[in-house]
């Protein structure tokens, strides 16, 4: 419903949210950052702007460079070239302990020889905060995450979820410029992870935090972020709001990495404003919206999400392909239907209530031109 | 501005530097001193410095020159430590017999004559007219020599400078090396024969049984070597517990000779070194998943086959590194043979200690030490290789 | 593994296991009662129980002095080895150190070089440096042998430490010095103490180097026991051995306790 037909240019992308209304200003700026270990380029000439108050997820497969970027922000890894600025000031040569950034580590990295309260007090002690003030702030912070009853325990005596909350509290208590999180929910079981996602979102909204969140879990990124940067091979494939990333992936990698998609190869035939006709290699003609410029006759891919594919017995929709049902799988909240016909195969997720489709049944697979994306092959 | 990698490197270097310097001075330097001693011979040179200089210029052809005679007289007139002089004469005598009388006669003549007075050496002793005595002296002069290294393996240089075997009854170093090797090998084999089944049993057992089996290995390891050797001394002596027990049950009437002989040395060394065999095998076996043997059995392997093809290959790396460790440590053993062995059970370390503290023959002590050091270092490097990639041996 | 072992094999295993345990422990157990024997012979049977040989350790000048020397030299060697070994272990951990593995191998060499070889070299060098027959010389010689144990122990606890803890501390505002003092140091402390205990035990048991570099004034307990076994076998050796075994058990207990405590603190319950 809120899907823009043509996504706005990347510089202005960003879901308007209670926490960050008004124009986005570059709070942290990464400019032409590269990092190589030996001959291997982990990060390759990358630019990234982070706005104050936003929840930015760095999403990508392992080895795509997302963690390296986070480590550079934290000051544990030095870029081979390029500049990082915070509010206009270079910070890339600043040692980690002078950056004032809160980091939540994948394994929490709680100090095993200190109690919960001592762990949380650590950054305040390091900053020379007076004892009484530190005690007060620690008590308040621990109370906020409801850990007061275990404040004198050692980390080894805590459950995974409790450790996670202590790590988070420790990274927030000194009011850092930014909170950097390296897959902080990865070690939790599914239920707890989903609960913590909502808790983190709530914390972000309430405290107006700037959060950079590294994850390889697309669901996590879609749930929590204002913006998502999809990483691949040391570069950002697409940087946009979760909706734009999901509904209008700009590259084949993004379309395939996020969610599931049906992909048809074809050639751009005729252009009519934003609407384009594409002749699939398998034969049928498909109408779709263009997000980027394509010359007539250029090779292109049409991506359609399975849940955007409709099934009906008759159809006069713009995009309707006669197909045969190959297989149906019951998935609880929907039916997953595998279809073949018109020289292509595809998957549709259909509402169970509409109709039960028998294997071998003939039907039309339909999809709205607004809901398919044309991308370069 | 310095990169953080550079700073980290400097910090690491700064941290290891104190130990590096300490070990250079107190570990590497002593070993180097010993090595240098094994190829240095200053006995004659130190007593006859001028003669050494003059002889170095002499080509060895033709008759002895007056210059040589003059320098020898000058050297002999210098006040000298009688011990050092005795060493030098012995050294010369070992090159060519006759030097003992020749040198003492010449020295007293040189000292007896007035300062600055020229002496006719041939008149004192006609042997000085013979070039072979000067040649022998020239051979004993060089600062660097291979004679100790050769002597360490029972070799010497004859008058013409060729390497030749030493007289069989002059030295017995080869025999001692062979003995050292045999004792170390027997101890290694015994440790393997006891240690392998013991480790297999320990790895297969559970609960308190395993705890006792392990404590039995660890407790001796923790106990002072001297305490253990003293304990064996008590057990093995003629009136010791073992002989008493055997006499009581009537197996023997006369005490078995268990101490001050090879049996005692091997028993005590096996006891001391057994933990070094058991622990590597045991820790190797622990990495084997508990269900591997049943898995092998379910694949149709008989119990013996499963043992031979599954368990043994997995125990093999531990057995190899344990054997190397035991052998390496056994080679340099000193205390146990010194206390429970007899005269014919002394290993190379005892001979080194004898040369160093008994006769102050640093050259021989150094040469034998060098051989032991090289062998041990090579074994250690092989050991390091093996224990880094344990699978290498298994395949 | 021993699930369906045949009874004969099982009995053979038990007999073999018991025999080896006996072989390993019997000598150590056998020497203990002799410490309380009133006889002047270091032998069974025990005539009557007495503590005269412990009195001998106290009153005999040679024995008393050797115990004091062992404590002095052991403490000195432990301090030198622990400081140098801990620093080196910290340095060797860095990924930026070139030839780290070769350096580590070299640092561990004193553990394998035969003591007699090192002793000969030290005796020659000490003569030149004027360290022969001095406490400093013996302390240094012992420290060389003790260093590998400290290095292995401290490296072990550094390897076991979560490498992210130090990064976490610096992200929370701790300078490198404070990271070391407040995080690294407390966490590897059990490893350092274990290394120190091993170092002390090594020094206490050292004979060979002492033979070469120590004078009569630096005669240690181990050296005195060596001489006593070799020359005039006195039951005072058994009394000294008793003290050493009891000391060893205490030390082993201490190390066990330290390991247990550090594991409890570092591993989740």
TrEMBL record, chain B:
<keyword id="KW-0813">Transport</keyword>
<keyword id="KW-0472">Membrane</keyword>
<feature type="transmembrane region" description="Helical">
    <location>
        <begin position="362"/>
        <end position="383"/>
    </location>
</feature>
<dbReference type="InterPro" id="IPR035906">
    <property type="entry name" value="MetI-like_sf"/>
</dbReference>
<keyword id="KW-0812">Transmembrane</keyword>
<feature type="transmembrane region" description="Helical">
    <location>
        <begin position="310"/>
        <end position="335"/>
    </location>
</feature>
<protein>
    <submittedName>
        <fullName>ABC transporter permease</fullName>
    </submittedName>
</protein>
<feature type="transmembrane region" description="Helical">
    <location>
        <begin position="12"/>
        <end position="32"/>
    </location>
</feature>
<dbReference type="InterPro" id="IPR000515">
    <property type="entry name" value="MetI-like"/>
</dbReference>
<feature type="domain" description="ABC transmembrane type-1">
    <location>
        <begin position="177"/>
        <end position="383"/>
    </location>
</feature>
<feature type="transmembrane region" description="Helical">
    <location>
        <begin position="212"/>
        <end position="235"/>
    </location>
</feature>
<comment type="similarity">
    <text>Belongs to the binding-protein-dependent transport system permease family. CysTW subfamily.</text>
</comment>
<feature type="transmembrane region" description="Helical">
    <location>
        <begin position="176"/>
        <end position="200"/>
    </location>
</feature>
<feature type="transmembrane region" description="Helical">
    <location>
        <begin position="265"/>
        <end position="289"/>
    </location>
</feature>
<dbReference type="Pfam" id="PF00528">
    <property type="entry name" value="BPD_transp_1"/>
</dbReference>
<keyword id="KW-1003">Cell membrane</keyword>
<keyword id="KW-1133">Transmembrane helix</keyword>
Automatic annotation (TrEMBL), chain C:
<feature type="transmembrane region" description="Helical">
    <location>
        <begin position="67"/>
        <end position="90"/>
    </location>
</feature>
<feature type="domain" description="ABC transmembrane type-1">
    <location>
        <begin position="67"/>
        <end position="255"/>
    </location>
</feature>
<feature type="transmembrane region" description="Helical">
    <location>
        <begin position="12"/>
        <end position="36"/>
    </location>
</feature>
<feature type="transmembrane region" description="Helical">
    <location>
        <begin position="187"/>
        <end position="213"/>
    </location>
</feature>
<keyword id="KW-1133">Transmembrane helix</keyword>
<keyword id="KW-0813">Transport</keyword>
<comment type="similarity">
    <text>Belongs to the binding-protein-dependent transport system permease family.</text>
</comment>
<keyword id="KW-0812">Transmembrane</keyword>
<dbReference type="InterPro" id="IPR000515">
    <property type="entry name" value="MetI-like"/>
</dbReference>
<dbReference type="InterPro" id="IPR035906">
    <property type="entry name" value="MetI-like_sf"/>
</dbReference>
<feature type="transmembrane region" description="Helical">
    <location>
        <begin position="233"/>
        <end position="258"/>
    </location>
</feature>
<keyword id="KW-0997">Cell inner membrane</keyword>
<keyword id="KW-1003">Cell membrane</keyword>
<dbReference type="Pfam" id="PF00528">
    <property type="entry name" value="BPD_transp_1"/>
</dbReference>
<feature type="transmembrane region" description="Helical">
    <location>
        <begin position="132"/>
        <end position="154"/>
    </location>
</feature>
<keyword id="KW-0472">Membrane</keyword>
<feature type="transmembrane region" description="Helical">
    <location>
        <begin position="102"/>
        <end position="126"/>
    </location>
</feature>
<protein>
    <submittedName>
        <fullName>ABC transporter permease</fullName>
    </submittedName>
</protein>
